[in-house]
Amino acid sequence: MTLALVFLSTAASADPAPSWDEHEEGSVAGIGTWATGLALGKSYEFTPEYGFIGFNGELMYYVRSDVSIGLSSGYQLFLGQERSTIELGDAALNAYQFRYLDTVPIFAVGRYYVELIPELSFFPALGVGTVYTNREVLAGIVSVYDDAWHFGVAPQVGLLFHTHGPDPVIDVKYTLAPGGSEHPTEMWFTAEIGLLFD
Prior knowledge:
The chain is mainly beta. The protein is built from two helices and nine strands. The protein has a single domain (26-197), classed as Porin (Beta Barrel), CATH 2.40.160. Strands 1-2-3-4-6-7-8-9 form an eight-stranded antiparallel beta barrel.
């Protein structure tokens, strides 16, 4: 009983977490996240394994307390393998193919923040820019790669937890990099967790 009263009195006297409205117009912040993801469509056919190697960073400027614009970039790696036969002139090589899809998006990002409670905000966001992709296949001693730059878009939604230190953030993102006659369309889903520093 005494312990419960001490806990309640301590919680009551603690300062509440700052709300999003305390981020002033014109201030600057940064976000760093660890990203995991799954390729989709043609990208999934090439590299179907769930990827745990990825990160993103963003530098953002608050146009208003509830609107930010920023520049983001990062890296995501997807993997796959299968046993198949590759024709090499008059010869054929039957071996495991190890497949790698490297992706590097560079986006301008706009975010809009909706305060749900003083300790928590929801945000939709949209990134628009360019995406570098590199498909690489290793089969025995043979290595083949195909890289390209794409136009890209990346809608996302997330939650921001307001604390007295760096603010934890989680989000989910869909990235689409349309292809053309020479390169396939690349697309993938990512789930991210990280911190916002201001």
